[in-house]
Design goal:
heterodimer; A: alpha/beta; five-stranded parallel beta sheet; 8 helices; 12 strands; B: alpha+beta; five-stranded mixed beta sheet; four-stranded antiparallel beta sheet; rod-shaped
Chain lengths: 231, 473
């Protein structure tokens, strides 16, 4: 059984989900408000935290902010449909993926599996450290340094950077990046990969202070530029 | 260019009025002074001069030139008065013939209808004259130039003095205009901030006790308070409705999956149907809420610069992704760079709704053509499908909520009938227009949005050099 924490104020929904996820080999622990959810997430070892944005008391985004200061546990956000802002804010604050609510529980299980596949298989598919200019990526420890300084990346961001560094200077489509970073196929109208890329850009900074590392190619995808390649 | 502010108007009009009053004031003083001179000439001072003239002429007529000269020179020494005497023919009997004032006065006496005495005023010195008949019957003309200056106007009327008075009045008017217009500026800035979505903007006590202005400020604050309360409660209501309607749907879909697991394969059909209907209901709730939010005014448009071509490109990428399995395609006919002001999320959903609608109706094996054209002050987005089109008389109605051209076919394509309404409200919220018309073998939807000011400046520059503007100029 895989331990999962669900922070959602809808007690009836959590009960139903508990029952459903149990059949899918997930051990679901539930919290019904932000404060107790944050406590539980920090005190116990969960494989994934599922976090509703609309919570009484402390909002889901605040929980996420505080959670990210202490741990890199994967977080799947449940957002209200149509509320693009919550979604983007959540991803910017370091959530690994999101699911608009109401969702199909099969989709939830698929997303949870995708996240777990990434975090667990990440170590298995490890390999040699990759080094490109000032960036160094260590697959075993899942750590990244940039210019000698450690950079804290979420799971999705790490996998995204890993994909980029394996193919520097090549255009990678948004579909492929989504598959690599989120472990799932891209869904229509899905902007999450763009948010992850912009987070990565922000965390790594620029070459020489003013050259972007990752360039968007309109209609195709993104390319991680080799040093000296950018104009 | 003249600024058309109220401040400037108050200032200019008040100043012009003050200048006019000052001008009229000086003019009236001048006129009344000039008019008072003849009167003064006729008073006791005129009487004294008459006596002196009679005495002088008598002396000349009776005693001859020498005693007259003595008489005159004595008075001249005492008072400085210059005396001239002329005979009947106008020949001077005194040593000098006098300056042009004296000659002029002599001419007046000869030509103008007889009156007791004549005078001229130059440099505030009076030249005074009177024809005198001596006892011998001879007629003389006596003219005297008085040494003493007459009393001038109450004060000196000179151009610099008038200019300085008008300037001082100008400063006064400037301060007055400032005092009157300043509260209006405060009010205006507050109203602007409020209109731009800062619902917390208040005039507050800054207007102090400036009468009607302070009242207006208080009234505005009350109104703003009321509006912001209404909008807040509207927003809260929408969020609550959204939450309350969706929570049961979320539970429903989980319960559905549980039921699926424990039921026989025979139940799969109805269960799939339940899932489909729940999904449809969910989409409908989302669209209804979006539409309500747009129409209630709870949605405010941020003045953010939106790169329309990027949004359109992304939507086309996504739509292609969705259209491929149905053997449909979305192609770009043109993609100009267009900057508009507004909300990227709202505009994205508006364009997305129109494009998706076109993809839904275009026939399999055909392409939806999307174009973004830069047209002077507007960005024009055209979306053309190869579908059945819309009956000509119902073209306007397709933007109404829940409008359907054909009930049966729409069900199959899964539309809730709100996508175009949402697009319509969004475009209007951004100050644009949306229209649809039938073209050969399909429907063409045209969205026009005003370009951001920075881009329409370029347009204005171009317009300046267009032949039309030259002709009209």
């Amino acid at each position: 059984m895989i331990p999962v924490l669900l922070i959602d104020d809808d007690t009836e929904l959590t009960k139903l989900l508990q029952e459903y996820l149990e059949q899918e080999q997930f051990q679901l622990d539930a919290a019904h408000d932000g404060v107790s959810g944050l406590q539980k997430a920090l005190n116990n070892q969960f494989s994934v935290v599922v976090l509703d944005v609309m919570l009484p008391g402390m909002s889901g985004l605040d929980v996420l902010k505080q959670l990210r200061q202490k741990t890199t546990v994967p977080v799947l956000m449940l957002t209200a449909r149509g509320s693009e802002l919550d979604r983007i804010l959540g991803l910017e604050l370091g959530a690994d993926d999101y699911l608009p609510k109401p969702f199909n529980p099969r989709e939830l299980v698929a997303r949870l599996r995708a996240i777990l596949r990434r975090t667990t298989s990440g170590a298995a598919a490890s390999g040699k450290p990759i080094r490109l200019a000032d960036v160094e990526l260590h697959p075993e420890s899942r750590s990244v340094t940039c210019g000698g300084k450690a950079v804290t990346l979420t799971g999705a961001e790490f996998d995204l950077l890993h994909e980029f560094l394996r193919n520097p200077g090549k255009i990678i489509s948004r579909e492929d990046l989504t598959k690599a970073a989120l472990g799932r196929p891209m869904s229509p109208m899905d902007r999450s990969i763009d948010v992850h890329v912009s987070n990565l850009r922000r965390k790594l900074g620029t070459y020489d202070g003013n050259h972007e590392r990752i360039k968007a190619i309109r209609g195709s995808g993104y390319v991680y530029l080799l040093p000296g390649e950018q104009q | 260019m003249i600024p058309r502010t109220l401040f400037f108007k108050i200032f200019i009009w008040f100043w012009m009025a003050a200048a006019l009053i000052i001008g009229v004031f000086y003019l009236m003083i001048q006129i009344s002074y000039n008019q008072s001179i003849p009167q003064r000439m006729r008073t006791s001072y005129g009487e004294a001069m008459s006596l002196y003239a009679e005495a002088a002429v008598h002396t000349y007529d009776k005693d001859g030139p020498q005693p007259f000269a003595n008489f005159v020179s004595r008075s001249q020494k005492e008072s400085g008065t210059l005396v001239y005497l002329f005979d009947d023919q106008g020949h001077p009997l005194t040593s000098g013939a006098g300056d042009e004032e004296v000659v002029g006065l002599l001419h007046d006496i000869d030509t103008q209808p007889p009156q007791d005495r004549y005078y001229r005023l130059v440099n505030n010195r009076v030249t005074w004259g009177k024809p005198v008949i001596a006892p011998s019957g001879r007629r003389y003309v006596f003219i005297a130039r008085l040494a003493a200056r007459t009393v001038g106007p109450p004060f000196d009327i000179s151009v610099p003095r008038v200019a300085v008075s008008i300037l001082i009045a100008g400063i006064g008017c400037y301060l007055l205009a400032l005092y009157l217009a300043a509260p209006l500026k405060t009010l205006r800035l507050t109203v602007q901030a409020f209109a731009q979505g800062n619902l917390g903007a208040r005039v507050g006590p800054s207007l102090g006790n400036r009468g009607e202005f302070a009242d207006l400020g208080r009234d505005f604050d009350n109104m703003a308070e009321r509006i912001s309360t209404l909008i807040d409660s509207q927003k809260r209501l929408l969020a609550d409705i959204s939450h309350e309607l969706r929570s049961p749907l979320a539970r429903l879909s989980v319960a559905l999956e549980l039921a699926r697991k424990s039921s026989s394969p025979a139940a799969a059909g109805p269960l799939n149907r339940i899932e489909q209907e729940a999904e449809r209901l969910n989409e409908l709730v989302g669209q209804l809420l979006a539409l309500t939010r747009l129409e209630s005014g709870a949605e405010r448009v941020p003045a953010e610069t939106v790169l329309l071509e990027e949004i359109v490109q992304q939507i086309i990428d996504d739509a292609n992704y969705e259209a491929k399995p149905q053997h449909k395609e979305v192609t770009i006919v043109q993609l100009d760079k267009c900057r508009v002001n507004g909300s990227p999320e709202l505009l994205r959903s508006a364009v997305e709704n129109v494009v998706r609608n076109a993809v839904r109706y275009t026939a399999p094996g055909t392409a939806v053509e999307v174009g973004l054209h830069w047209k002077l002050a507007t960005a024009e987005l055209t979306v053309r499908d190869r579908g059945p089109g819309v009956p000509e008389n119902e073209l306007d109605r397709i933007f109404e909520p829940f409008y359907r051209v054909s009930e049966a076919r729409d069900r199959a394509s899964g539309g809730a009938g709100l996508g175009l309404s949402i697009a319509d409200r969004t475009v209007k919220l951004h100050g644009g227009t949306i229209a649809a018309r039938n073209v050969e073998g399909g429907l063409l939807v045209v969205i026009r949005l005003p370009l951001a000011p920075s881009q329409s400046t370029v347009q204005q520059d171009q317009a300046t050099f267009s032949p039309a503007s030259l002709a009209s100029g």
